[in-house]
């Protein structure tokens, strides 16, 4: 039997409540774990912590950059917009270090929402800090279903085809594209909805939340297939 690839998933470090407790915790929506498991991989959570990046990346077959809080605008040389969330320097530093090590090794990488933005910032790009209200996010928490147009000559196009209906929840977006990155999907208003780093084993990031759509596992299956090849090397 082929071994299940090991996928590291970045996680939140936030206040959470369970039982009689309310304290800081490493948390992640179950939908990420379910999506990875359904695709045939084993998930390992990677909460922000000091050190251990190189050893972790050396043990993993793929890295999934999960969604979450806004990236500190100082990371891309901007002042904060009034609607930008408070900085999470520990998470930013941790995930940027994981991503740098993964790219250096050419480990398969899948970015989701914040993960796409992190990839763009890591490679020298910047972000639009606030989009028009309710264009890609509704409040309270609710996904905006919209169609994106995908470049047919991209990795993503080979997985999903020329268009896809996706679930979005983001108030920020790609501004200047990072070095070497290619925008491979856009929404009707021109917002970048996917990025890829060509010439890699698998470096794909989407602005939407594919983990919330169990009826369409294609992206996670493709990521897992790339990670399985990494495990076999």
Secondary structure layout:
Layout: E1 6-10, E2 12-18, E3 21-27, H1 30-38, E4 42-46, H2 53-59, E5 62-65, H3 89-105, E6 109-112, H4 114-122, E7 127-128, E8 144-150, H5 155-160, E9 163-168, E10 173-174, E11 182-187, E12 192-196, E13 203-206, H6 218-232
Parallel strand pairs: 1-4, 1-5, 5-6, 6-13
Antiparallel strand pairs: 2-3, 7-10, 8-9, 8-11, 11-12, 12-13
Helix pairs in contact: 2-3
Walk me through this protein's architecture.
The chain has a single domain, classed as Rossmann fold. It is 27% helix and 27% strand. The chain has helices at 30-38, 53-59, 89-105, 114-122, 155-160, 218-232, and strands at 6-10, 12-18, 21-27, 42-46, 62-65, 109-112, 127-128, 144-150, 163-168, 173-174, 182-187, 192-196, 203-206. The radius of gyration is 17 Å and the shape is globular.
Number of helices: 6
Biggest sheet, open or closed, and with what strands and sense? 9 strands, mixed
CATH topology: Rossmann fold
User: What is the beta-strand fraction?
Assistant: 25-35%
In percent, how helical is the residue content? 25-40%
Topology pattern, helix = H, strand = E: EEEHEHEHEHEEHEEEEEH
* Unreliable runs: none
Query: How large, in whole angstroms, is the Cα Rg?
Result: 17 Å
Overall mean pLDDT: 95
Distance between the termini: 16 Å
Structural class: alpha/beta
Total of domains: 1
Short structural summary:
This protein is an alpha/beta fold and 233 residues long.
């Amino acid at each position: 039997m082929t071994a299940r690839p090991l996928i590291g998933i970045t996680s939140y470090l936030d206040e959470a409540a369970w039982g009689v407790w309310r304290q800081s915790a490493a948390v992640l929506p179950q939908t990420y774990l379910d999506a990875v498991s359904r695709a045939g991989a084993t998930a390992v959570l990677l909460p922000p912590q000091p050190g251990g990046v190189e050893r972790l990346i050396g043990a993993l077959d793929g890295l999934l950059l999960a969604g979450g809080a806004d990236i500190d605008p100082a990371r891309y040389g901007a002042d904060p917009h009034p609607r930008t969330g408070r900085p999470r320097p520990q998470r930013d530093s941790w995930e940027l270090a994981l991503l740098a090590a993964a790219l250096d090794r050419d480990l398969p990488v899948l970015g989701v929402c914040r993960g796409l933005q992190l990839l763009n910032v890591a490679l020298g790009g910047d972000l639009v800090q606030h989009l028009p209200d309710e264009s890609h996010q509704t409040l309270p928490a609710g996904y905006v279903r919209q169609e994106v147009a995908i470049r047919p000559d991209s990795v993503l196009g080979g997985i999903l085809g020329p268009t896809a209906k996706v679930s979005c929840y983001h108030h920020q977006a790609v501004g200047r594209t990072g070095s070497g990155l290619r925008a491979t999907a856009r929404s009707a208003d021109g917002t970048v909805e996917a990025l890829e780093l060509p010439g890699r084993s698998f470096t794909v990031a989407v602005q939407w939340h594919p983990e919330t759509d169990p009826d369409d596992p294609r992206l996670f299956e493709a990521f897992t297939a790339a990670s399985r090849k990494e495990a076999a090397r």
